[in-house]
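The instructor's notes for this session suggest beginning with a concrete chain rather than abstract definitions. Hand out the sequence below and ask the class to guess, before any prediction is shown, which regions might be ordered.
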Amino acid sequence: MNDPRNQGRSRRGRGAARRGFSVAEMLVALMISSMLLTATLGALQGSFKAYKATTESASSHVVARMVMQRLTTMIRTGEDFGPYPINPILDPVLVPDPPEIEFVVEKNESTGFERVIRIERRDTAEENIYALWYVQTDFFGGVQDGEAQEYPLLTNVQNVTFTLYYDVGPRLEHATIDLTIRPDDLDDAAIAADLESASMRMVTTISPRRMD
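After discussion, reveal the predicted structure:
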């Protein structure tokens, strides 16, 4: 004989098994999922941009160090530096404006050949951002031989200063290069937030070797 209490419990069990999520529960679940997804995407974007900033900064630092090392070598082995101060006795320190330094890297007195290198700052299309240019000119007997060869050594330069310390002659005692560069911008990596790499500053002082 069937027990009515058992039949009631059986009907309640089948009803509970058929019950699903309510609309409110679905909305709460969707809201939580969207919040988690947004937080995940934000963290992923931050990781991408931080990696990009680190990569750009490291790359720019390596290039800038190579340029500084090349400039140091050329100045150390150069001679007949310019521009010259008006009076190296009264005012032996010169800071050219716009920044530049010029010197002879190769000379043959028997043929009258001279190779002159000029390192100069030039404007770019971007405001307050410059480029450091290398200009090479050959001379025979004081007359320029052909067109000068020139190309950019370094871009994204925020500031560069050449401080030239002269002795009588005028002879260059030493030169100080103060260079500030900006790593490549991150506009191509931007998604929603802004992230900028810090500028890098390098300062070096070089004394030319005395050939006499």
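Then share the key points. Residues 175 and 206 are 5 Å apart (CA to CA). Residues 186-193 have pLDDT under 50 and may be disordered.
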